[in-house]
């Protein structure tokens, strides 16, 4: 008979439990070999740049694909004092590991948190050289990153005084490709064609962006649950099309988010929507590796854009400018909806880019047609701004819609750069009608029914205009000599397009075209709006009757027939640049609408007997 030993059974049970526990731990370790990647171990402790020494081993976090935050190793090569400016050093590191040695320093990696001795040392922000064989990068010390957003929270209007800084981009002046410059920020375009982006490449390149095509994803409940190594960025345009930046998160302090480790554009205090970015994959390139990302849901507001960091606040996003662009042609009608940020340095460029893309990528749009623009900009507390012009197709490789985009951009530039008050745009409506054919006209000749006239007399005027590749035709109008005009005076009759009429009646200020400033500087935002709304249109034929008496242009006021005594009285005015004296006064003006742009000028003399 076999005796039962309780101690033996207890020991066996314990061994089995320990074996099961060991197997479970091994299985968990196997299944969670990248647990560090999914939930990086972060420390609230920081290490000062003064404590950093060459040879120190560390690591950083970033995303290469999906939502998986991955860890890669690095080694400190040294510290470069005063690199960014006085008392603003950077830490030079070499990245290690199969992925970073394959991709190099990646556009979108800026902001990746760097840890030395388990303490947060800073944000990956710079890369060394182009076509380099080793991934060497610069790190902005964490003290500078956190200080960059210490005073954030101002309004977008506060940033008007701080110009767009090319401080980092200008560091590429050294020859040989061995210079440190900021890691490029991917500017993610969704719904944009490369042909539209290319037309504004000079402006985008000068800002240090890498244009990348991406998409948008639906908002998710966990969008705002950020950890160091995740990605977020600025929302510049959203809707049927979108433009967003993408950076890596360095640190989160309460509801404050620190990104990039270098400026977006060094705009200062801003109010720009912040959204989650989700990485699809990382494209490896010898020229410029970059992350391909989709933009997620809104998570807060970017409040600060300074030399050493971009910072934001989790929570609601600021309002944007609604825009609606409708294209109408014989093939139908289509409308594009978008929202744009309100910023004096960015909105004009974004409105032009969005307009060109929405127009030229529209299925009812076609090149070689005449485009009739009718737009309205509604401003809070002011009358709406009206834009009306017609554009004939050209013979260059530029898309015909470029003229429409630049016309809208010019008006936005004038509104946002006015010297009187910050404008608040409530919405923008752009309607473009596409008419088949090239409808444009040139002025070939003009003549009066009589060679002279008496005061108060009305004369018939005929103008010979030639349509593009068509037979010339005669347009008729009449002019009336003012009753008070002195006999013996010789008047000048000018038949012209809008641009030439602006030059003649508004002097030098009007010589830059009908879409620019028509006469002296207005005295406020309302006079500026009135000035824009009454500007001459390019699809009209203008007739002006000029008398040989001086006209004074004083700010936005036009004073014809000014006596010589009044002209002499302004000689000692402190700002004579705001006053112009023209040798003629516009005594009468008429216009005839045409179905396309008009060009040319004819001048006739009319003696008064």
Features:
609 residues, alpha+beta, Thrombin, subunit H, Ubiquitin-like (UB roll), 3 domains, six-stranded antiparallel barrel, six-stranded antiparallel β-barrel, 41% strand, disordered N terminus
Strand order of the largest sheet: 1-2-3-6-5-4
Query: What is the residue-averaged pLDDT?
Result: 82
N-to-C terminal Cα separation, in Å? 150 Å
Give a count of the beta strands, DSSP E runs of length 2 or more.
33
CATH hierarchy class name of the largest domain: Mainly Beta
The backbone outline, from C-alpha atoms, is: elongated
DSSP helical segment count: 11
Number of domains: 3
Gyration radius (Cα, Å) is 33 Å
CATH superfamily of the largest domain: Trypsin-like serine proteases
Structural overview:
With 609 residues, the chain is an alpha+beta fold. The chain folds into 3 domains: 36-318, Thrombin, subunit H, CATH 2.40.10; 322-436, Roll (Ubiquitin-like (UB roll)); 441-607, no CATH class. The chain is built from 11 helices and 33 strands. A 6-stranded antiparallel barrel has the order 1-2-3-6-5-4. Strand 18 and strand 19 (332-340) form a beta hairpin. Helix 7 runs antiparallel to helix 8 (402-416). The radius of gyration is 33 Å and the shape is elongated. The model is unreliable at 1-12, 17-39, 151-176 and 508-519 (pLDDT under 50).
């Amino acid at each position: 008979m076999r005796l039962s030993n309780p101690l033996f059974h207890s020991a066996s049970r314990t061994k089995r439990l320990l074996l099961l526990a060991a197997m479970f731990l091994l299985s968990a370790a196997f299944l969670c070999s990248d647990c560090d990647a999914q939930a990086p171990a972060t420390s609230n402790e920081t290490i000062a740049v003064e404590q950093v020494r060459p040879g120190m081993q560390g690591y950083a976090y970033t995303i290469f694909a999906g939502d998986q935050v991955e860890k890669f190793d690095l080694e400190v090569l040294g510290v470069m004092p005063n690199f960014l400016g006085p008392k603003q050093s950077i830490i030079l590191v070499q990245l290690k590991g199969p992925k970073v040695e394959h991709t190099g320093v990646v556009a979108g990696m800026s902001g990746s948190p760097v840890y030395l001795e388990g303490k947060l040392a800073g944000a990956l922000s710079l890369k060394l050289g182009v076509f380099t064989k080793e991934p060497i990068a610069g790190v902005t010390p964490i003290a500078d990153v956190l200080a960059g957003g210490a005073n954030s929270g101002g309004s977008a209007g506060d940033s008007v005084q701080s110009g767009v800084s090319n401080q980092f981009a200008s560091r590429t002046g050294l020859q040989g490709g061995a210079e440190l410059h900021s890691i490029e920020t991917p500017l993610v375009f969704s719904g944009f064609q490369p042909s539209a982006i290319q037309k504004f490449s000079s402006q985008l390149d000068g800002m240090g962006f890498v244009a990348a095509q991406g998409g948008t994803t639906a908002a998710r409940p966990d969008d705002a649950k950020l950890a160091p190594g995740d990605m977020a960025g600025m929302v510049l345009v959203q809707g049927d099309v979108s433009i967003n930046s993408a950076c890596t998160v360095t640190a989160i302090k309460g509801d404050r988010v620190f990104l990039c480790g270098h400026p977006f554009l060094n705009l200062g205090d801003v109010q720009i929507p912040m959204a989650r970015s989700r990485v699809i994959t990382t494209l490896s390139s010898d020229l410029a590796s970059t992350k391909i990302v989709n933009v997620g849901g809104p998570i807060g507001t970017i409040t600060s854009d300074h030399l050493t960091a971009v910072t934001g606040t989790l929570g609601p996003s600021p309002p944007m400018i609604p825009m609606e662009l409708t294209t109408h042609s014989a093939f139908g009608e289509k409308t594009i909806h978008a929202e744009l940020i309100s910023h004096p340095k960015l909105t004009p460029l974004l409105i032009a880019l969005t307009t060109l893309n929405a127009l030229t990528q529209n299925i009812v749009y076609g090149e070689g047609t005449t485009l009739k623009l009718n737009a309205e900009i509604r401003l809070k507390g002011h009358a709406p701004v009206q834009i009306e012009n017609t554009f004939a197709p050209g013979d260059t490789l530029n898309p015909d819609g470029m003229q429409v985009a630049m016309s809208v951009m010019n008006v936005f530039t004038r509104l946002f750069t006015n010297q009187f008050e910050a404008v608040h745009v409530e919405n923008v409506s752009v309607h473009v009608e596409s008419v088949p054919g090239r409808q444009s006209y040139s002025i070939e000749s003009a003549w009066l029914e009589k060679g002279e006239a008496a005061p108060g007399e009305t004369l018939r005027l005929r103008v010979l205009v030639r349509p593009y590749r068509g037979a010339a035709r005669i347009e008729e109008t009449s002019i009336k000599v003012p009753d008070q005009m002195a006999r013996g005076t010789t008047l000048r009759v000018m038949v012209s397009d809008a641009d030439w009429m602006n030059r003649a009646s508004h002097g030098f200020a009007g010589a830059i075209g009908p879409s620019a400033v028509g006469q002296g500087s207005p005295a406020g935002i309302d006079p500026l709006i009135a000035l824009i709304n009454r500007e001459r249109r390019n699809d009209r034929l203008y007739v002006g009757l000029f008398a040989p008496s001086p006209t004074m242009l004083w700010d936005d006021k036009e004073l014809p027939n000014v006596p010589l005594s009044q002209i002499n009285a302004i000689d000692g005015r402190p700002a004579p640049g705001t006053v112009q004296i023209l040798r003629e006064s516009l005594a009468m003006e008429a216009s005839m609408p045409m179905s396309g742009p008009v060009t040319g000028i004819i001048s006739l003399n009319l003696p008064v007997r």
